[in-house]
Amino acid sequence: MESVEFSNMLSGLISGKESSWTLFIDTFYPLIRGKISKMAPHLDVDDITQEVYVQLINNDYRALRKVEGGFPSFLNFLVSLIENVIKSQSFKYFRNLNRHAENTNLEKKADHRFSIEIEFTRREEESNLKGLIEKLDLTYLEVMQLRSKGYKAREIAKILNISQNTVLTKMKRGKEKLKNLLGSEIKS
Predict the structure, then answer these.
(1) What is the mean pLDDT of the chain?
(2) In this structure, which long-range contacts are made by residues 66-74, counting pairs with CB atoms below 8 Å and at least 24 apart in sequence?
(3) Burial class (CB in 10 A: 0-12, 13-18, 19+), 178
(4) CA-to-CA distance for 56 and 14, rounded, in angstroms?
(5) Which domain holds residue 68?
(6) Is pTM beyond 0.70 here?
(7) Distance (Å, whole) CA 149 – CA 147
(8) For the domain that residue 165 is a member of, what is the CATH number?
(9) CB environment 18-34: b (16+ within 10 A), e (fewer)
């Protein structure tokens, strides 16, 4: 990005111009998303991306107003901001996970058999579900595999280059087919 174009974009961001924000998102969204995906695959990338944007606009664009220097300085600033948001959100995520684990541990202490049976059942069901998904027609297979990996319908649509409504339809019909497959396996 040339220095004049960068300066115009930065001043437009600070003044809240929609065209500057569109340029910013078009230019830096892949960097932001990639950094988050690489550093924190356990977090929801879209949520963290939104938090980065929130940090940029908080307190009347305070963070953006502090940017000094040209484009390389801005890149360093943006990467640092992304890393700080990831650290903050990861801390919250793991703190909540630990709280949940502590509560779960109390439940497990009350009945040791509970935890072993539940975990065994969960793994068995997960394995069975993956096996059933593999039996689906190619029409539903890709969508259901991506969904089972945690992708949202919007993300699946982008990956497969199809409309979000098509993804939702394939997910609904794929679930119906899975129920039928599961029903036939239970009968046999």
Answers:
(1) 81
(2) 67/10, 70/3, 70/6, 71/1, 71/3, 71/6, 74/6, 74/10
(3) middle
(4) 9
(5) 3-93
(6) no
(7) 5
(8) 1.10.10.10
(9) eebbebbeeebeeebbe
